[in-house]
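Q: What would this chain look like folded?
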Amino acid sequence: MDQYELSPGLDMEHGFIRHIQQHQYSRKQLDEEAALNKEQTARLTRGVTMQSKQTASVYQPPGRRGPESSAATGQRSDAGGQRLNTGGQRSDTGDMSLSQEEVDIERYVAEARPYILEALQSLGNVSNTCLKSVAEVIVNRAWEDIGYYRTAAAMCQIIAQKEYEQQVHDVIPTHTFRRSVMETCADIFKNHTELREHGINYWIEFIRFLSEIYSQIRSGTRGLRGIYDILFGALDVLTKPPCIAAFDEVELLCSVLRDVGHSLEVDSLDQMNNLIASLRDAFLEPQTEEWARGMLLEILELRASGWKLSPSVAEYYYGGSES
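A: My prediction, written as structure tokens:
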């Protein structure tokens, strides 16, 4: 029996078990925080799509609402005179402030309202999780509520500018809001066929929002310029069936290129060349209607003349000189 010595047992002095316990406690804390963030995000986004779809058919831009509809949303008819305090800053795109009536906060899901207002006014106390949800609900309302795209773009510009100023000296800036805006737009465009089938007006409003936010942030706000990649993709879709056979979509294509065609070409000449090639193919396609060819020809001539028509061509299309 002497050849079998008793085991000295585990040496607990090194504190290995204590480190394991601390690690388990830290993991438990991280899991609890992740669960809380997930629940918070769910509360922000729950019911947003359903609420918007139920009211989209009767939505009117704030400027066209009467006293009855203002009362129905819990707003005063004189709310347009009150402006949100968004910092009082100005950018190259103009006054960075919005009226309460323009924002129309009551139409957002209740859980999201305080975070949206906080992001517009100070941003500092809004967590990245909530900021991501704010971006999603603003972008989704931009296409779900007809006529809201300009306000949604202005809101994105204000919040994106505040985020840039807040993180400009950070070693590794997160750009959570800006990244979330672009990711949400990219996801919507990825499913553009289903969106158009759901309602052409929704598809048109989405492209208007892309054009508006691109126009607003191009010179005044950093970090969102990648949005033009999605805008180019959407415009290219408009040059192909079935969009090219719909007057509203062809008119939208031409309108966007009249407004921001030159800027888009400056930002990405290669993508503009590809888009113009698609326009030319659509113009030459035998099935393209005559009215559509006339509209496409105007844009082809506008681009060929450096995005400024000569007086004679402007007289032909518009009955006056092109400014």
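The chain is about 65% helix and 0% strand.
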